[in-house]
Amino acid sequence: MTGGLAGAQLFFFDKLDSTMNRASKLAEDGYPDGTVVVAGQQTSAKGRLGRSWISPPGQNIYLSVIVRPTLSQLRYVNMAGTLAVCRTISDISDLSPSIKWPNDVKVNGRKISGVLLESVIEMGMLKHAVLGIGMNVSLDPSEIPEISSIATSLSVELGAYFEKTAVLKILIERLDQFYNLVKRGCSITEEWVSQMETIGKTIQVRIGNQLLEGKARCVDNEGNLVLEKPDGSVLTLIAGEITLQS
Predict the structure, then answer these.
(1) What is the pLDDT of residue 49?
(2) pTM of the full predicted structure?
(3) Which CATH number fits domain 202-245: 1.25.40.10, 1.20.140.10, 1.10.10.10, 2.30.30.100?
């Protein structure tokens, strides 16, 4: 690892309800920036907006890392996570991963990874945050009807077996690189946007019970999506508030 931050302390469990839950407890107990929790299986994992995350045993990477950036740096941590996944895939294959704003990584139009960021803020100060990454390594989505049409994995895309631990090592190294850039105040927005598949597309977004359609014009420096509606008006979308429809 370049900076030795992400993964400086690593806990591995055969089975957890959720790596996010365990990492959050460790964060409350004072464990340092970069502490990583990995599980071989999760029984109650969740994705963004409370969606369940399917986590069968032994097939994929399930990790969460305690992060303690400044409040102003927090918005870039999700970028670090998705870019780390993209770089990992590019390092070990000739695949061309893309980011579906704000937190999914896709290969050939199907989801291979999702990133989740949860934070605890008190009195206007960031106590800690936890970045979760789920990455499909040897999963066969055809065996799981609810995701068979939308998900993929490294093994499916390349027709080869991947040793999960080797992929995990590279992923932590890449996360360390990008998170260290964030901590040093370097901008990673331009690289993040360069991997984005959403820009220029006509999309639908759900804000509460309201469904809007428009063109994804660009992403601003803080990672918010700028949507141009059919009437020409512009709306800036914050990731935590909306759901991007496929």
Answers:
(1) 46
(2) 0.91
(3) 2.30.30.100
